[in-house]
Amino acid sequence: MRIRIGVAALLLGVVAAVGVSVAGAPQTQALHDPQIIDVQGYQELVRQNRGKPLLINFWATWCEPCRDEYPMLNELAKEYAPKGLRVVGVNSDQDGDLILMRRFMARYKPVFPNYRKKLGKPEEEAGFNQAVLPDWRGELPATFLYDKDGRLIGHFFGARNRETYEATIRKLLGSDGGSGDAPQTK
């Protein structure tokens, strides 16, 4: 009986010591999932960024053109942020794809904030899309360009090359807010 108690006390001491050393070890902070936004959250996001030209890109990990375009958008965000451009990503993955989204973001380490589009019934998602742009049906990738006054002045449906983005960004940065010369292409 004494041997059992002694062994139990020894094991308890080892477990406690390991627990203390693990608890005292520096912990790496886990990446937080992007905040979920609904229509009102999206509109608030646009309002909060007034004063700077804004590029918002909707993407998903299951969308190959989105995955191809994302690293380029990250580079463009690094290059044009000092010139006043604000870039924001909005992820459209289903909840079942969160692990893929986390891995994707950990791999590319975006320099711009990302959010998650609130998913719901098809009519709710259609309402979100129409609040962004009345004729948007949810195609990805989708990029929306806002002038410094928060007015939507252009959009892209589908992937674009770097040259197209750079030309559009230069126009957006040089626009006075009313030129409307950013592309309205689908």
What does this structure look like?
- The protein has 186 residues and is an alpha/beta fold.
- It has one domain (35-174): Glutaredoxin, CATH 3.40.30.
- Helices cover 46% and strands 16% of the residues.
- The chain is built from 6 helices and 6 strands.
- A 6-stranded mixed sheet has the order 1-4-3-2-5-6.
- The termini are far apart.
- Mean pLDDT is 84; it is low at 7-30 and 176-182.
Write the layout of secondary structure elements.
Blueprint: H1 2-24, E1 35-37, H2 39-48, E2 54-59, H3 64-80, E3 86-91, H4 98-108, E4 114-117, H5 122-132, E5 142-146, E6 152-157, H6 162-174
Parallel strand pairs: 1-4, 2-3, 3-4
Antiparallel strand pairs: 2-5, 5-6
Helix pairs in contact: 3-6
Q: Which structural traits does this protein have?
A:
6 helices; globular; 46% helix; single chain; alpha/beta; 186 residues; six-stranded mixed β-sheet; Glutaredoxin
